[in-house]
Amino acid sequence: MPLDSDQLLHAYRQMKTIRLFEERLHDEIKTGEIGGFTHLYAGQEAVAVGICMQLTTEDKIVSTHRGHGHCIAKGCDVIGMMKEIYGRAGGLCKGRAGSMHIADLDVGMLGANGIVGGGAPQAVGAALAARIDGKGRVGVAFSGDGACNQGTTFEAMNLAVVTKAPAIFVFENNHYSEHTGDAYAVGTADDIASRAEAFGMRAWRADGCDFFSTYDAFAELLEHVRGGNGPAAIELDTERYFGHFEGDPQRYRGKGELDRIRAERDCLTAFREKVRMEGSVTHAALDQVDEDVAALIDDAVAQARADAEPDPANVADDVYADYF
Amino acid sequence: MTTLTPFTMPKWGIEMAEGTIAEWMVAENAPFTRGTVLTLIETDKITNEVEAEKDGRFVRIIAEAGQSYPVGALLAVLSDGGEASAAEIDALVASFRPSESGFDPEASSTPSPPSAPPATSDAAATDIDPALASPTAIQEARRLGVDLAQVQGSGRNGRVFAQDVHQTAYPSPSVSLAGPFPATPPSSVLSTPVARRLAALNSVDLSSVAGSGARGKVKRDDVLAVLKQTGAEAPSPPAPDMSAAPAGDHAAHFDVVPMSSMRRTIARRLTEAKQQIPHFYVRRRVRADRLLALRGAIQGERPSVNDFLIRACALALMEVPALNIQVHDKEMHRFSGADIAVAVATDRGLVTPILFGADDLSLTDIHGRMASLAQRARTGKLRPEEFTGGSFSISNLGGFGVEQFDAIINPPQGAILAVGAARPEPVDDDGAIRIVPVLHLSLSCDHRAIDGADGGRFMAALAKLIEQPHLL
Amino acid sequence: MAIMNIREAIVATLHAEMERDPDILLLGEDVVGGNGTAGGPEAIGGIWGTSPGLWAKFGPERVIDTPISESAIIGAAAGAALSGKRPVAELMFADFVGVSLDQIWNQMAKFRYMFGGKARCPAVVRLVYGAGMQTAAQHSQSVYAMLTAMPGLKVVLPTTPADAKGLLTEALRGDDPVMFFEHKTLYGVKGEVPDGDHRQRFGEARVVREGGDATIVACGRMVNFSEKAADKLAVDGIGVDLLDLRTTSPLDEDAILESVEQTGRLIVVDESPPRCSLAADIAAMVTERAFTSLKAPPAMVTAPHSPVPFARSLERAWVPSPQKIEDAVRRVLAFPGRSGQ
Fold it and tell me: Which CATH number applies to C206-334: 1.20.120.430, 3.40.50.720, 3.30.70.360, 3.40.50.920?
């Protein structure tokens, strides 16, 4: 079913929000105001948005260390995220998480994850829980081409198959597991989805730099999983615009590689081009979104900067629900 | 057989001092079962029910409804169920001592058991909300006169433990700092840091030392063994300031002061004493917590710790007369009373006024006389007969934070006791480790007239008196 | 003697030892870096810069870039060690012990014992650990205590470039599995490094400061913090024996006990939560074996019982600081009173 103009504008707004959020962070991190490791999602926006806009808040996702895109697409508050990344008291996780562990359980975002491969088994657990609840909800694991090599991911896929859990394994192949190429590190680099098929589930393949390709493939997949057919997987071929983490000199990139992928593999450009051809959304409307999003990100940074640092006296709060 | 126990006014909260019996809910001699409400007690904050902890009956109800009683007062006599004769009940009532009596100096003259029976103190401890403090902390706070409300608790939600009470009650020690040491060079020989330090200080080649530790590691004792073999002195800890100026530089930095006649007398007498008297030393550590608590409980003018020690020495000398002597060449003079010399530091030097017949003096008397003697010693107004004679001396350097020292006998006396400061130390308290103030005592005896066993007996008697100060 | 930092000392030692012993191999994530990319191999040399030049010199058979597969990395090291090689496996973050724990805990630690003393498992696992860089709950932990608790593992924590060289050399020449902890904030620490063959035996604490009033026992970054505290205390005439444990298994119990016997006061500093920690272990050992020498209860300066937080203000509150160490020393000196000096 073709998307109406509201849905298209929403998709564009989400992708644009992720893009500007990440590009702004890339600049702000250089000021030294943001500590720790920050892994940016820019370039992969079509994946997060193409998938998450088809999920409800009751569907659960587990994310990766590169989790900002998944958070925004799943509906996390952008200002709360920015505050979190700045390590402020008003952050989504009270400043305890930082970039790497942002979570918002209220919108079904079970957490970014500092451990590569840490999330996939949890998505199976979310799926098993959803099956008990009987509302047709699913658990989605985002994994990269790095996590597809972790034993936990394999164990999770097999567990999902044998339990027929409504789990979805999303493999975002951005071609770099940290600083090593997928051609070296993944034995089936040109076909990660085949691993899922080998475990006994159906797999889809799509272009992760094209919103519509991702959206359509995932729509089919979701119907399959919501239909009670057990788990499924999808592999998205996508691109990482920045380094593994901010500060990564990216010496492993080829000459002109970054310029080329930005020119040829930009989901936002492709989206604008497609809606212009179809005439479904005016460029003026998209420009207005660009303006709104830029204002939102400005506001988020300003609010994050102005927010207080967490009170050190609270350092050991929230370790347990109930201890003594 | 019927067991009788006292039923006393409970202590709810650390501020509760007394309670009023609102109503007795059971009658005398009526049997009741565990959980029965026995009485209603009002405080200025709450009215509370007291439930029976076990089956039993009141064989006598003493407290009257509507009347107030202090915490710990005897309200009734409980039986575990059986009947009891009036004589048995009277005996319990007569022997009852409220647990709150504390270290009342007036009360200390009545004989009481050396320590409260455990059952009593347990009962007292449970009177306070156990969420506020541990039972031992409550007991210790009571014993040391510490207000639990002022104690910074280290437990969950600020719950007070015994060590917290002790840290509130006791002062910080005046630590004489050893300070930083110069770095010793690293060694290629497997060795402990202290062994390396010792070796460097004493110019021992570590590679020549046989190590007794794992894999031949050279330990402190290995270096000490080598030093002993080579006849070197056992090393003292390194001086804090290793860069002290060489001796020659001191030449220009002293004034020549002639000795006063008093100083010369002191010098002569002590030289003779040290050279001619075969001193031997008997040392003992004695817990002083009860003595300090007893002293702390005294209202008004308090005798000093030293006054207590004078009294204790006097009584101990009566118990061990072998020490209560003077030594004169081929004779020993045994004394019937304890004439105790007390060393007093004055501007002009050491003076030892004598408290004659100290065994017959009360603490208050000792305190008064010592104050007068010390005052006149400092102003040089002692009459000669006031510092001549005596059978025994006490020298107390505790005021300077000295832990322990040995004194030279003041001839013709037979012995002298050296007293250090009371410092907190762990002691074995009936199987439990407790940190309490401990005195280090050192007795110097003239071996010509006194044997080791006598010294030991005297110290045992003295320790008993200090540790059970109600005997004083 | 050459002046270098800890990172350089590790790189130099790996080069020298791999040259000396053809059985040594290195494996880990991005230890070469850039494999399978347009930039090509050796674009990284480890994200911590601890393995540059090794791949070019010793080739892909001995310098192996791995996928992100920590269980397989450690397990492969265990197997190679059982097969007569001397693998060095790198965990980019010590926290990833959580991913690979079985291969460490149930496998390499136990081979020698389970196999009747016949097996040799000379594997060196290099783990990058510690808080202080806002790397949050899953990239900041100091997991040395739990590995110290496991019989069969040796646990090493260099704090100087000389020790980095000496201890790594010792690890590579021994026959037991060694957990080699590198604090992420200490790589840049500079110092003199002995030339030539330099081995530092395990179980021998380093004396960092000497003094007679208290004994501070520390390891890793806490040694540096303790030095700062010791310098401030020295101004007031308070002298401390500061012991850098170098290895927590084996533990130089003799050095700790002898020092405490002299000073009567113990402060243990540990960059981890207090429960079942190294601090608790040492405090218990001293309480048990030097009770009569103690003038005050041992003090533990540790992190709170919580994960490592992200925010700067929280992380600073979490990490034991020089100020907290100094305060602890003064508290112990004031015992039983409460007043600090």
Answer: 3.40.50.920
